[in-house]
Description:
CATH topology of the largest domain: RNA Polymerase Alpha Subunit, Chain A, domain 2
Structural class: alpha+beta
CATH architecture of the largest domain: Beta Complex
Strand content: over 45%
Number of helices: 6
Number of strands: 21
Strand order of the largest sheet: 16-21-19-18-15-17-20
Oligomer: single chain
Helix content: 10-25%
Radius of gyration: 47 Å
Number of domains: 3
Amino acid sequence: MVNWQKGRQLLEKITEKWPVKVLSVAAAIILFMFHHLGNLQERIFSSPLQIEVSNNLVPSSSYPRNVRITLKGDAASIYPVVEEDVEAYLDLTVYRDPGSAKVPVQIRRKGTAMEAENLEIMVEPLEVAVELDTRTSKYVPVAPNLSGSPERGYELVSYILEPNQMVIDGPGNLISGIMELGTDSIDLQNRNADFVLRLKVVNPNPLLVIRGDGMAEFRGFIRESIMIRSFDRVPISVTGLSGDFLAELETELGSVRLEGALRLIEVFEPGENMLFVDASEITEPGVYVLPVQALVPEAFTGSRQEPLEVTARITVNAEKAGP
């Protein structure tokens, strides 16, 4: 009986003012939780969104290239974490058919992120809408992207681009529209000699992949520009004629067409005796048909002249004739 009374008294003491005691315990728990939450910190950074694909399907529409990563925990947990040790990715390997899909963004921990305790990792957005299409490949020609002009009087006469075609991989609906790949800009401005450049081939769409290192070698060949210029009303002179005679030409003016480097020929002016007839073998008066010759500077090539011959009337020079 005594033991029963003692137990009853103990129970009465425990249950005495029990609502107050329950509230006190609850308040202590809440205060502990608020204190704990108050000590939690957040660290936010941007992380590249990686894509894991199968050999059959690839994304055919744009998607976020980066996602927002939030690390939540105490300072000792979140700040030692290296950003590269938290990877965000879309797992497309589970899909088998082309079409639309809403793919959850997943997180992979590595290195320091695995070592951290009591670390909460959140990602935004939680999922990404992606269009999937069948992966295809094809060869595409590569063309140089030329800009500017060589130095005046020079021109790009030819070039070699290696490789002149590349293989691209990607979704079929995008690859079907790619007819050519271009290079980074090739500046020809004020060039006057051959040159070699190592260039990047420009990827027209980030959803496509150019096989290899994506580089091409351009070899440009610069030569002087060639110009053909006609000179009209060029006097025809008589050379070699004895002082005892005088010459009268039926045609005193002619024309000549020269070919040569632009920088030289555009400033050239015909000199004396450019067109002439040789009368050195004439020994008596008369009418002669003499060939017209052209004295062409070494820098040029004569491509045509007119006339090819001229009639000359040779008379005695009265001033030289005796009494």
